[in-house]
TrEMBL record:
Ranges of Gly residues composition bias in the record: 135-158
One record GO biological process: microtubule cytoskeleton organization
Substrates-to-products reaction catalysed: L-glutamyl-[protein] + L-glutamate + ATP = gamma-L-glutamyl-L-glutamyl-[protein] + ADP + phosphate + H(+)
GO molecular function terms noted in the UniProt entry: ATP binding; tubulin binding; tubulin-glutamic acid ligase activity
Polar residues bias: start-end ranges: 286-301
Protein species of origin: Volvox reticuliferus
Name of the molecule in the record: Tubulin--tyrosine ligase-like protein 5
Disordered: annotated segments: 1-22, 102-162, 187-209, 282-317
Matches recorded under SUPFAM superfamilies: Glutathione synthetase ATP-binding domain-like
Phylogenetic placement of the source organism: Eukaryota, Viridiplantae, Chlorophyta, core chlorophytes, Chlorophyceae
PANTHER family: TUBULIN POLYGLUTAMYLASE (PTHR12241), TUBULIN POLYGLUTAMYLASE TTLL5 (PTHR12241:SF145)
Low complexity composition bias: residue spans: 102-117, 187-201
Length: 501
């Protein structure tokens, strides 16, 4: 890459968009090259990284990027509601408290309405007389078909399951817990990290282990769309070819990765249904309950009772924060795990098989929503890309490209939810079944082939009789014409940015 030398730079970008690490590489970082003279500069070269894209590929920064640029409402229409840890622990707790109060109010109103319509005992016994004649009584309480996705409003004041994520990849570092236990576990981790940091600052102990710290608390999608009774998620690929302005493409191929076992909602929902917040009680009585381990009911699938600090957060109405080491977090059951790195010998489909299963009309709607979500995330990343580009000041504008893995989950209404971006998606092909292995190869090979077709023209000149100019295109093309040229050679890549519906 013909860029300026990137040694130590006194200018430090804002913490919000700190991306300078990728740009500070130099020959001194490559000890194996020191005994040899540096290689001659390449006339044409590409770097397989775009500075600033870590605003999407890092879990916490993805959340902050979407929320800061798009606003909370738009951000949480793309990705499940999430909170940054540990910075937003108190905000998360306050949000849970408000949701608890709202659920309790709605439950009381529904109970009163059902009693007025059908009588106290008819409602309790589930008799349809007095409730079936009015449209207002069919919401989701009393064991009806509706509800809030967590068992209906008749299922108590449960806040549902939350998944806690660390900075690890390949499906590692995930914990699935009911809301109150998740909050306790996060507070315990915060206390442990503070103690560990004090030891590091005092010259004792090793590093802070940021990669293993909790980064995000995210609402769990408990009602996914199922195929053959199994949960699945989608792995798609996005190619970014320019950063300022952003040009990106979404590949039509992808992987549908299934769980190893049929989906068992009760494996997670049982813990949710049996775990309720302590409610608004006096601090003394709450401390007494916590001390005896009876602040909430345990189920077979929930984590064991977590040790608590009786004084901390006693007045909040929620379970107190942890004081001692946290118990082993509740691991997602096999029927909930779809990560290929941890589950690489189960059923896998290609996107064409998914389209066939859903039907043309439904798949067209799903694909449009997937494109819109990817484009929305890249739009949110544009300020970070522009700031990082201005900091780097590359002498070659099109210095690189990057393929991102994008993971989505479809809920029961076929609405896609963005789970994460991966900065280095796996291109390995492994599976015990030869037919499935061939399918995975076909999907990944097609993506890599089309990526090369777009990028190769930047490296190699045109062949004889194909026109003037190096890089496979006439010199002096503007951004708009360059995008048109790339789109014409994109194969199965669809132009994504600039976004057009």
């Amino acid at each position: 890459m013909h860029g300026r030398s990137c040694g130590p730079n006194p200018r430090t970008p804002s913490p919000r968009r700190a991306a300078c690490d990728q740009a500070s590489w130099s020959e001194s970082h490559l000890p194996c090259l020191r005994p040899f003279p540096p290689p001659p500069p390449l006339r044409r070269a590409q770097v397989s990284a775009i500075i600033g894209l870590n605003s999407l590929t890092m879990k916490k920064r993805l959340l902050l990027t979407l929320r800061e640029v798009l606003g909370p409402e738009a951000a949480f229409s793309i990705t499940p509601r999430s909170f940054a840890l540990p910075e937003e622990l108190d905000v998360w707790e306050e949000w849970l408290r408000k949701q608890q109060k709202q659920q309790q109010t709605e439950q009381k109103q529904t109970t009163q309405r059902m009693r007025q319509q059908g009588g106290k005992w008819a409602w309790r016994s589930g008799v349809e007389e007095g409730t079936g004649s009015t449209s207002s009584g069919g919401g989701g309480s009393g064991g009806g078909d509706g509800g809030d996705g967590n068992g209906g409003s008749g299922g108590g004041t449960s806040m549902g399951m939350w998944i806690l994520k660390t900075g690890q990849d390949a499906g590692k570092g995930l914990s699935l817990l009911p809301a109150d236990q998740a909050l306790q576990y996060a507070r315990a981790q915060q206390q442990q990290q503070q103690q560990r940091q004090q030891q590091v600052d005092g010259g004792h102990g090793g590093g802070s282990g940021r990669r293993f710290q909790l980064q995000v608390a995210q609402q769990y999608i408990a009602d996914p769309f199922l195929i053959l009774g199994r949960k699945f998620h989608l792995r798609l690929w996005v190619l970014v070819t320019a950063d300022c302005p952003c040009r990106a493409y979404l590949h039509r191929r992808g992987l549908v990765l299934f769980s190893a076992e049929p989906y068992d909602k009760n494996a997670a929902a049982a813990a949710t249904a049996s775990t309720a917040f302590a409610g608004s009680t006096k601090a003394s009585s709450q401390s007494s309950r916590v001390a005896t381990g009876t602040s909430f009911t345990q189920s077979d699938t929930a984590a064991p009772p977590l040790p608590t600090n009786q004084a901390a957060h006693a007045a909040s109405g929620l379970s107190p924060a942890l004081a001692g080491p946290p118990a082993v977090p509740y691991q997602p059951p096999a029927s909930h795990i779809t990560n290929y790195a941890r589950n690489n010998n189960t059923m896998v489909w290609g996107m064409s098989k998914l389209a066939e299963h859903l039907g043309a009309e439904r798949f067209r709607s799903v694909w449009a929503a997937l494109r819109a979500a990817c484009a929305g995330a890249l739009t949110a990343a544009s300020p970070s890309l522009a700031e990082a580009h201005a900091w780097l000041r590359p002498a070659v504008q099109e210095y690189g490209f990057q393929v991102l893995g994008v993971d989505f989950l479809l809920d029961e209404w076929l609405r896609p939810w963005l789970l994460e971006f991966n900065s280095s998606p796996s291109i390995m092909v492994q599976h015990e079944d030869a037919e499935t292995r061939a399918l995975v190869y076909e999907q990944k090979y097609g993506m890599l082939r089309d990526t090369w077709e777009i990028i190769r023209a930047r490296v190699y000149p045109r062949g004889p009789g194909e026109g003037k100019g190096e890089g496979g295109r006439p010199r002096g093309l503007g951004c708009r014409n360059m995008a048109q040229w790339e789109a014409a050679h994109a194969g199965e890549y669809e132009p994504l940015m600039p976004y057009k519906q």
